[in-house]
# Entry
Amino acid sequence: MASSEAIHEQALDWAVRTGDPAFTDWAGFTAWLEADPAHAQAYDAISASVAEGAELLRVAGPANDISASHEPVSQAPVSSRRRWLGGVLAASVALVVGVGLWQRERADLYEIATAPGEIRTLTMRDGTSIALSGQTTIELDHNDPRRARLKHGEALFTVRYDADAPFRVAVGEDRLVDIGTVFDVRLDRQGMSVAVSEGAVQFNPDAQNVRIDPGQRLSHDIATDRYVLSAVAVGQVGEWRQGRLTFEQASLERVASDLTRVTGIPFSAGAPGGKPASISGSVLIAPIRKDPQAIGDLLGLEVIRTADGWSLAPL
Amino acid sequence: MSVTDPSSSSGLESALLTYREQLLRFLRARGAGDAAEDILQEVWIRITTSNLGPVASPLAYLHTVANAVMVDRYRSVRQAEKRERDWADVHTGEGEVSSEPSAERQLTATQEAAKVLAMLDSLGPRVAAIFRRHRVDGLPQKAVAAELGVSLSTVEGDLRTAYRALAEWKARADGEER
# Structure
């Protein structure tokens, strides 16, 4: 039997390895546990301590919502990595002690990504909230909480208005400036869309400079490279958060992409080259998550099982 | 629909049936004893009530959930023991009442959080950042390595350092209470 120190060392290794979602050697882990009941005890003690430590940090506040830094502004510049690391730690400390030093300087970017089917809401320091749909990546700036870049997916912004510091969102090549707003932004392979339910958004102030009002959707279709302003029911803006999706004369690709994002189940648009479909309808997400085939009856589509998911085709 | 669909709960259900014995064996090795069957039921409930995306490997996923259930059980048993100790202390007149007002508990948690942060800080900024990105923000170890521009083994080594310190912190905290 190994000494308790040796067991502790082995248990540390297993705790690190099993904590990663990529870990697969559960048979090896089982064999180690079976070798000595003390192994499970040592592993539990470490895992519980780590879980408790992580929970305390989580309660203290996510580092991505705050960007205070302990570094005095006058300090000599440090490398960007040091700054990033310092920022993360300083941010946590600042929240715990309740001290926030504002600092406007170079961008200090970080990314938040959601898995398919995962919905996550970020609350920013200024009270702005950003709900991320599944399969979505957003880039934020520790040094400027009024800036975001949607890299992929869909997000609903509920922005705390500040005339002196308008909230700016970059979406692909497009720029949005909010004018006190709730708005939904989507970016995927089909293109970009911005829908406003409250307030207004100024679209590409340096180019088109279009104002998007509540009940309007501005979209850019990659296939046609055209910007189109259309009407949207205010209640439908960001309704994926309430577990619903509404399509109006949507393409199969649009339906497949939106469904995949919110359900986490891979849908694809089948039969390329077929006549373009125009799909309208409103569906609840939960039943589709349980039974992907249910979408067929709801939207009048054929749903075919494929090797890696479900393919949609017009009936 | 097909029962082999790995991205739905029905796919996981069939995996759970297929790998039932293997999972029970894992739970027993984890210290579940006679409760292994009940705990497997708990694993299933947890899976059906969670917001689940596609699962690459159902077997690994089922183990991950089973492992998490076991860690949670361990923690709740320890907390119950602690409450019982506190209760006994009150009755022998040696300690504080355990049901503190929640504001006070919150303060205690804040102070503990500050302690954990200071401790992680003392291990170096990289260790603290890696721990936070992996355990608090939930990034896979490979993604943390890529983000910080270090190797996967550096991430593993730093996590090990952080875990060791947290285990010592917890052992100390429990010792102080007694």
Observations:
- Residues 37-60 of chain A form the longest helix (24 residues).
- The radius of gyration of chain A is 24 Å.
- The longest strand of chain A covers residues 147-158.
